[in-house]
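During the no-cost extension, the postdoctoral fellow (Dr. R.K.) reprocessed legacy sequence entries with the updated structure-token encoder. One reprocessed record is reproduced below for audit purposes.
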Amino acid sequence: MNIIIAGDGEVGFYLAQSLTNLDYNITVVDPHSELLDRLKQNTDLLTITGNSTSPEVLEKADVKDCDLFLSVLHDESINLITCMVAKRLKAKKTVARISNAELLTSKNREMFRDLGVDELVCPERIAAKEITNLLNNSMATEFFDFSGGLLTMCLIRLEEGSPIVGRSVRELLQIYASLQVRIVAVLRNSQTIIPHADFVFKEGDLTYIISKPNQMESVKKLVGKTDVNIHNVMIAGGSRIGRYAATTLEDRMNVKLIDSDRSRCEELSSIVKKGLILHGDVTDIEFLEEEGLSDCDAFISVTDSSETNVLSCLHARRYGVKRTIALVENTGFINISQDIGIDTIINKKLITASYIVRFIVKGSAVSSKWLSGTNAELIEFIVSSHSPATRKPIRELNIPMGATIGGIIRGRETLLPTRDTQLQEMDKVVVFTMPKVMSQVAKLFH
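Re-encoded structure tokens follow.
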């Protein structure tokens, strides 16, 4: 597969680095030569300095032989124009990053397809949806649905007193044999581990758990945690993520949305109907105290500054706020932020990469989730009629080291697989995989 990534900063850079293990031909087009120099030092990708809306630049990138064209610049207008030009120059499939969720209506999607933009990805809207899911499932650090909620993934930190701390996987299978849950991976000291039978869980481990949605009580029993009741929510930052989150949550929760820009606050007051809009500085602790920070159940910081988001969440923790969520754009901050006590990190680079991976891996990938704090991916594949996986049980599939099957969706039925399970055509299979074996995994189901 030939892939062209058009970017103007860190999102394109991150995508390019993330995809280098997939054995595809990747070309990066970016107006910043210094960023491309950094990329060339770490990879052997082809890089071209130039404007992505220029037909001459795209022809230099061999756009006519491009199977997938990704435009992820900060300016959505440039992304849309770039994809239109690329499609006119014979790119097979185009994906544009946008920031205005209003463009995601079925009518607008159809219009843009007619103009040459096959897919739209809005990281801000996806981030707001993740925030809503997390507040609805407040015991988890991350939460993601597959196949419309038939299977769920949650990330939970093991705390002192958890029933599974000090126990091995083998012991858990004996003690909790009836529980319909599966731990597919553990993040420990920034290292991603797929636990084997003798693996022993420790306090502080971040555990990735796959379960049926009706088994969330079993998950709570397994890890010894309960949901936090979220009624009062404070959101710092009136960006698109902040306003999307506020409008989604305001019907069920008491929402206060803070922004330092008075004109933006006036604009927000006409968008957020039930929530309270506050003009103020989120770094001013006295201001936050006066506005009831200590009475909040959840504090969400999504300003344009990662540092402000991290610090304001830490202040919220000090004042007894039970749930904190921070937008952190520097991926290097993610592990540190989690280690110092912030519950959940939102990152637009990871969100964009998660959405785009489904168009890149061979086979029928229908959804994916790039996991915070690790370079691993959860991908939902559809098993094809030609797949070798339909001809032998899972134990004989030679699933590569660095990957494991977490769950199977068969029609409306959800299965947690055993070694003797045999896949069927049209099964949806949720797989935890590291990037270096992603291509091998995809071939199993293609």
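The CA atoms of residues 282 and 288 lie 7 Å apart. The mean pLDDT is 89. The remaining legacy entries will be reprocessed before the final report is submitted.
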